[in-house]
Amino acid sequence: xxxxxQLINWRRELHQNPELSGQEVATxxxxxxxxxxxxxxxxxxxxxxGVVAEVGQGEKVIALRADIDALPIQETSGVxxxxxxxxxxxxxxxxxxSSVILGAALLLKEREAHLSGRVRLLFQxxxxxxxxxxxxxxxxxxxxxxxxxxxxxxxxxxxxxxATRGGAFYANVDRFVLRVRGKGAHAARPHEGKDAIVIASQxxxxxxxxxxxxxxxxxxVIVSVTRIQGGNTWNVLPESVELEGTVxxxxxxxxxxxxxxxxxxxxxxASAFGAHIEVEWFNGPITLINDDKWAAFxxxxxxxxGYRTQTSELHMGGExxxxxxxxIPGAFVSIGSASEYGLHHSAFNPDEALIEDAARYxxxxxxxxxxxx
Length: 373
Ligand SMILES: [Zn+2]
Ligand SMILES: [Zn+2]
What we know:
Elements: H1 3-16, H2 25-37, E1 41-42, E2 51-56, E3 61-67, H3 94-110, E4 118-124, H4 132-139, E5 145-154, E6 161-164, E7 167-168, E8 172-181, E9 185-186, H5 196-214, E10 221-230, E11 236-237, E12 240-249, H6 252-273, E13 276-283, E14 289-290, H7 292-304, E15 308-311, H8 322-327, E16 330-336, H9 354-369
Parallel strand pairs: 3-4, 3-5, 5-16, 6-15
Antiparallel strand pairs: 1-2, 2-4, 6-16, 7-14, 8-12, 8-13, 9-11, 10-12
Helix pairs in contact: 1-3, 3-9, 5-6, 7-9
Bound molecules: zinc ion (2 copies).
EC number: 3.-.-.-, 3.5.1.18
Keywords: Hydrolase
Enzyme class: hydrolase
């Protein structure tokens, strides 16, 4: 069996046996077994799921990270190695990321005697619910690490294409819930109530002015109301309406500005209509900020080993890798996976041809990064 076939077999085995965030028990057992069989040292962290291994000797440590969790999606890709777990699917390609970093681990093991330090391999659980990175850091996975690297496959790019950027990359992802409390009334006697539906409608439109009229047009921002609920029949004006939505930004100043404007608009409308509007704000994943130097380093190496490289656009989604980069420098990169259907789609089907090259790339990246100051 060739190296590429080995990695593809592992990827398919992971793909057939996907597990949800925080429940990656069998996945963890498989990865542990594969790493141990290849002679890698497993670090004895008390993790419920996830694996951390190491290769090499010395003071300096470079980390490579893969994520291992799947999504609550019923697979419709039609591939022969489709999910055996009903309603669970590797629809984000974390099975591909895992096989890439497993491949890098094997290559680094072969070159162990020549490494100028240690490479730590993080197989992180629970990326999709943004809790895994924190758990690994708490366990000690970043101790003595001078830089960390990770990847996401990019269905919109052809295989052989590589993209990244210095600075902000993935977004701050926040959620808000707004509760409009007016006064219920007979639909035929609206003057006796404070119509929560009319107020909520004005609120949705007013929130759109944050992006169009408050934030600098050169800054990225999304304010979306994604759920609106109120009333239960045709002849009663409801007492209350609940709205929910999300805000995406790439700078903390803008994030704070948007949060402040939502509260001001809610308070202003409540006062104008004699109602009450409660605002609840939930901070989600933080902006992923690549280190300029390491992003350039990763890009140059990609070019040197034959990838077509390009600068990434800003990404409006969230990525748990951001949490590592809050603690230590490093770079997150995109590698083309040429899937007709996108990430989180039930028919997502990344091209496995990316796996071998990406494994070789990450092994060399870690090896070269160990030589940097
Ligand atoms: Zn995902
Ligand atoms: Zn993902």
